[in-house]
C-alpha cells in the first residue's frame, strides 16, 4: 500500500471532508481516505497497481475541489 498526501483547496467544512472521503473510498484499490479541511489536505492509502495518484486527484476534482500540483 502507498500513502499519498495531496494539498486540496475548496473544502470548507466537515461535509466537504465527507464528500471527498466517500468519493475516494468508493474507488477500487483505496484502503482508506482522510480529509482535513482546516489543513487543506487529503491522505489516501491505496494500492498503486490498482489506483494511481492521477485517478485519486481526478476523483477529488470530480467531487468539486481543487488539487494543488
UniProtKB/TrEMBL annotation:
Keywords associated with the record: Plasmid
Cited CDD domains: HMA (cd00371)
Domain HMA: 2-68
Keyword Acyltransferase: no
Keyword Iron-sulfur included in the entry's annotation: no
GO molecular function, one term: metal ion binding
Secretion signal, residue range per the UniProt entry: none
Pfam families associated with the record: HMA
InterPro entries xref list: HMA_dom, HMA_dom_sf
Protein's name in the database: Copper chaperone
Amino acid at each position: 500500500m502507498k500513502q499519498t498526501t495531496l494539498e486540496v483547496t475548496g473544502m470548507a467544512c466537515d461535509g466537504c471532508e465527507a464528500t471527498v472521503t466517500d468519493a475516494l473510498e468508493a474507488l477500487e484499490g483505496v484502503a482508506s481516505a482522510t480529509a482535513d479541511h482546516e489543513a487543506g489536505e487529503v491522505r489516501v492509502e491505496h494500492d498503486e497497481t490498482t489506483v494511481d495518484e492521477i485517478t485519486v486527484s481526478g476523483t477529488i476534482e470530480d467531487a468539486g475541489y481543487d488539487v494543488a500540483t
